[in-house]
Amino acid sequence: MHGADEARLPVPVSAYGPLDGLAEQVHLMAQSGRASEALDALEVFEPYARAFGDTKTAAFLRQGRMYAYLYLGRIPEAIAVGEQLLADNESSGNPVAVAKTLADLSDLNLRVNRVSEAMRKLARAGLLLEQTTIRNDRYVAALSSAICAATSMELFETAHATYLQLTQWWASEGRTETTANHDLIYAETLLQWGLRLDQLGDHVEALPRLRTAADIFQRWCTACESTDAAGPFIALHSLALAKTGELSRARQLAAGVVVRLRGDDDPHTAWPAHMALGIALRDQGDVVGARREFTAAAELLRVTGSPSERLIVGHELARLTIDEIGEHASHDLRYMMELQARQLWQLRLQRVAMLRQARHREEQEQARREAEAALLHDPLTGLGNRRRFDQLLGDLDAGLMPAPTVLLFIDVDRFKSINDTYSHSVGDRVLCEIAGALRVNCRADDIAVRYAGDEFVVFLRTDVEGARHVAERIRATIAQTVYDDIAPGLRVSISVGVAAHEPGMPAHELVDTADAHLYLAKRNGRDQVAA
């Protein structure tokens, strides 16, 4: 992972909760080498966001915790937090947030050598990002995470294709260029791609990628020349230049930033400068100096470096050893290096095939889920159907339904009269309007079902008082609407029964209680809520 990239982006308040400033602080601390401070801040900020009811900021804070664990090298803990975040995002139904978390988890799983799991998550992230119609800064951040994950796995072709998705969206928005952050991510992909090709001795393919990366870094070095942000670009630029043969300029640039970067809060960004210096010193015959620089780069990558980055440094150290022991004595070592480089490249190509297979499996799984979902949805209203209702009751009896759970039993008042007076097609449109009112007035984790005919059921994640407010809001919305577009002067009302699930209560008893309260609302004059 190249870093918590979205933390560098301007975060629009509309995309996050009202306390998103707290989460931004955590992300900035985590990515600037103060991950331990970020964890301390989270102990205060997370309970505060939950108490305030700001679920969006709470999710953003959890993401910050995942990144903080990453920067501390506590990868299993980062994965555990990421899985919790993924479950939350899936529950909220936001495909872009799900895709970003999947991409981040893909990178984290790779770091603990769970390659198959990393592939599966990246394949699913890519599928979601291709299919979603959401296009905003969160979409951009998710694409960026997918590029980073693909690059970490050396799936350079995938990273390149994903970057094209990003630039196409950018162009559709009328923007002429991307941000420094996204160019940096892409240029790092090209740099690593070129370095790996160079290890194979394929200099013809490596050179254009390295030069393009150098051009991108140069552009942003110039744009950020008067700011502290230029340092990481200069370091990467120096490495790209060193590998294209511009050793004098590479050494000058690297020497100018390496000490400052090592003194910053995020010294990891200094490793490319050490590499550029090492390459330049080796070319001058200073083997001792070159080893010092390469070893410094390896040490910086020891905790937070990606496998690909560590491989790049290791290869340069091995080449240096060949220079030290002499050409004749190093014959076998050179042969083994070339053999290993080609085997690693074959492994990379196998990963490309693995991703295609993972993508195919995800497409099949998605088709299966969609088929199952179709069986659980009412074709008229799009809500859950009676089969879904029975499934939820089973979950309730099995203890799988999160507490608290309150049931609303809803019946359209005098619905037969609407059918008889207007027509059954008008009646169908009324049912669709009521389904829409349920969707508008329910949260993402509430579940609305068309129980039968003109009867609806809603499973709410709240207490009785909260459920009463929701029911009253739904009732008022429907009662105050004149459905002139369906039939002139048509008005509709509903009656609602409310019942809370108590510990140990059988699901059928909850339904019976809500139904009894619905009957009470009907008996007392309709168009009301009874709890």
Q: What does this 3D model show about the protein?
A:
By secondary structure, the protein is mostly helical. It is built from 21 helices and five strands. A five-stranded mixed β-sheet has the order 2-3-1-4-5, with helices on both faces. Strand 4, helix 21 and strand 5 (529-530) form a beta-alpha-beta unit. Helix 7 (137-152) runs antiparallel to helix 8 and helix 11 (230-243) packs parallel to helix 13 (271-283). It starts with 19 loop residues before the first helix and ends with a strand. Residues 1-15 have low confidence and may be disordered.
How would you concisely characterize the structure shown here?
The chain is mainly α and 531 residues long. The protein contains 21 helices and 5 strands. The chain has a 5-stranded mixed sheet with strand order 2-3-1-4-5, sandwiched between helices.
Return the structural class: mainly alpha
- Spans of at least 5 consecutive residues whose pLDDT stays below 50 are 1-15
Physical arrangement of strands within the biggest beta sheet: 2-3-1-4-5
Strand content: 5-15%
Radius of gyration, taken over Cα atoms and rounded to an integer in Å: 29 Å
Q: What is the percent of helical residues?
A: 55-70%
Overall spatial form: elongated
The counted number of beta strands is: 5
Mean pLDDT: 88
Give the end-to-end Cα distance, rounded to a whole number of Å.
52 Å
Main β-sheet description: 5 strands, mixed
Number of helices: 21
Helix/strand order: HHHHHHHHHHHHHHHHHEHHEEHEHE
Q: Please, what is the oligomeric state?
A: single chain
